[in-house]
């Protein structure tokens, strides 16, 4: 999967969950999707609009009430939804899901399928700031989804980040 698309998808907290639910066969109407996600109405609506703007969802033409439309995955959405479903299948509880909903968690895990330095991760993500990346890495380390070791063979010792435990299972989705 393209890392820029992944960054765009995860910019909204509920986008991955919506894609996974549609992939798993939950009806594309707003009420069943909203109930299945557990999201608030405004955050849910923003995520739906965001996915439609990315071209991953579309309104099902000719079906449903105009004020309560039905949504379906586009061809590109059909290609991306299995990744979302595979990611969410690795989670164990609400605490894990809260971590996944953060903007940079999934893109960072997608890049550390093998040990990487900070600058490699930052370069791979493009638009991320040093502070946001540092916070994301620290949060993932606190949850024991990645480990930070030091590369002493480098001219100046530098941290080397590697996915472990649940973080490794999620990063393997992208291999």
Automatic annotation (TrEMBL):
<protein>
    <submittedName>
        <fullName>HxlR family transcriptional regulator</fullName>
    </submittedName>
</protein>
<dbReference type="InterPro" id="IPR036390">
    <property type="entry name" value="WH_DNA-bd_sf"/>
</dbReference>
<keyword id="KW-0804">Transcription</keyword>
<keyword id="KW-0238">DNA-binding</keyword>
<dbReference type="InterPro" id="IPR036388">
    <property type="entry name" value="WH-like_DNA-bd_sf"/>
</dbReference>
<feature type="domain" description="HTH hxlR-type">
    <location>
        <begin position="81"/>
        <end position="175"/>
    </location>
</feature>
<dbReference type="GO" id="GO:0003677">
    <property type="term" value="F:DNA binding"/>
</dbReference>
<keyword id="KW-0805">Transcription regulation</keyword>
<dbReference type="Pfam" id="PF01638">
    <property type="entry name" value="HxlR"/>
</dbReference>
<dbReference type="InterPro" id="IPR002577">
    <property type="entry name" value="HTH_HxlR"/>
</dbReference>
């Amino acid at each position: 999967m393209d890392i820029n698309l992944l960054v765009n998808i995860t910019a909204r907290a509920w986008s991955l969950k919506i894609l996974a639910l549609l992939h798993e066969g939950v009806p594309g109407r707003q009420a069943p999707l909203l109930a299945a996600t557990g999201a608030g109405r405004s955050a849910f609506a923003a995520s739906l609009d965001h996915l439609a703007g990315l071209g991953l969802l579309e309104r099902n033409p000719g079906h449903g009430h105009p004020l309560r439309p039905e949504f379906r995955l586009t061809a590109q959405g059909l290609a991306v939804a299995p990744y979302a479903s595979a990611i969410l299948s690795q989670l164990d509880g609400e605490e894990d899901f809260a971590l996944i909903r953060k903007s940079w968690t999934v893109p960072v895990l997608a890049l550390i399928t093998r040990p990487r330095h900070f600058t490699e991760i930052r370069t791979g993500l493009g638009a991320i700031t040093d502070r946001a990346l540092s916070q994301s890495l620290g949060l993932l380390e606190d949850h024991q989804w990645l480990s930070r070791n030091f590369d002493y063979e480098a001219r100046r010792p530098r941290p080397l980040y590697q996915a472990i435990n649940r973080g490794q299972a999620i990063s393997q989705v992208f291999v």
